[in-house]
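EI: anyone free to look at a 107-residue chain?
SC: sure, send it
EI:
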Amino acid sequence: MEIITGAGAWSPPAAGDWTEHLRTPDLSVGTYCIPAGGVDGQSPHTEDEIYVVTAGRAKIVTPDATADVGPGTVVFVPAGEPHRFTDVTEDLALLVVFGPAYGSRAR
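SC: here you go
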């Protein structure tokens, strides 16, 4: 067992905006933060992904849908699906789980 301290907690974004807290071959867990008014510059990932919104408000946009997100929202994004957070009206903190671990599949 391991307690993952600080995962999903808001902190001002640094370069890259993503902080990885745990990594195994099968999954990785981290925090992704976007400040209010900020821009999400991510590209589609080669791994499946789950976002849990722990703070803030925004929209998530994919080619097929747009949805409002806020604390408690859980979003699944399959590998390869373009997605982006837009209209960030409150500092956004996301607990992120990748399966398998982030960046482990060849692009």
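EI: The chain has a mean pLDDT of 92.
SC: 👍
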